[in-house]
Structure formats: C-alpha cells, structure tokens
Design goal:
134 residues; alpha+beta; 6 helices; 48% helix; 20% strand
C-alpha cells in the first residue's frame, strides 16, 4: 500500500503533507529528511488509527512522492478490508482461532502473524497469499 505526499520548501524547511491523510504534516531540513519523516509520520498515524478502530481512507492522490506503508500495517489493513461486514468473532471461528488471537492480527501494534496463519487466512477468504501480502 502506498500513499503519496507532497513536499514544499518553506524557509529553511521542507514541509511534507499527505493529501489523503489531512492529519499528517511533518518537515525536515532537506527533502530526504522530510521524506524520512513523512514515512515515520504515516506509519505512526496509520498504526494509531487502526488500533483505535478509525476508518482509513483509500489512497487516491497519485502525485508527488510515494511512501510505502510498513508491511505489518498493510497486512492489518488488508485483513480489515477482507473481513468486510463479518465480525472478528465469525472470522476467528472460521480460522480456528480465539477472538482475541484474531483481534491481534488486525492490530499492527500487536500482530506478528506466521506465514502459516496468513495461508489459513487466505484460504478462508478464497484468496492467494500473494494477494494478502503482495
């Protein structure tokens, strides 16, 4: 998953913003530093928003600088999307997991799924594993 940021020079700083994520604004003293800060800010904001159950917008802005979301965050977002209207309890039962174990999978702060778990998830949702992690 990729979000794009814009960078504008203001005085001695470079300001990075994500049009798809209005709550993220960061800066650096160089363009490279602003890009590194943008990556850190994006991952931190997404991780917090997911953990709090907030809705994450689909990336739609396609100009500027691409920032790739950390894998553990992208997997959590993909699981939420695949689950759709199903409850976490229903999906947990299909996977043979406890509700709490499945809940951790959708929380990037607590999730660390094995490849075997990801394969089971892909099977339950009728997907190939590459779709989930690719």
């Amino acid at each position: 998953m990729v979000f794009f940021c814009t960078i504008e020079k203001e005085g001695d700083e470079y300001i990075a913003q994500f049009p798809d994520m209005a709550n993220i604004v960061t800066c650096g003293f160089s363009k490279d530093e602003a890009l590194a800060m943008a990556k850190e800010a994006l991952d931190g904001c997404l991780e917090a928003d997911i953990s709090q159950g907030n809705t994450i917008p689909e990336p739609s802005f396609k100009k500027g600088y691409p920032i790739t979301v950390a894998n553990h965050i992208a997997v959590a977002l993909q699981l939420r999307e695949l689950r759709g209207e199903q409850s976490q309890t229903d999906v947990a039962k299909k996977l043979g997991l406890s509700y709490q174990a499945y809940q951790r999978l959708e929380n990037p702060r607590k999730s660390n799924p094995t490849i075997k778990t990801l394969e089971r998830i892909a099977h339950v949702f009728g997907r190939e594993l590459s779709v989930i992690i690719g």
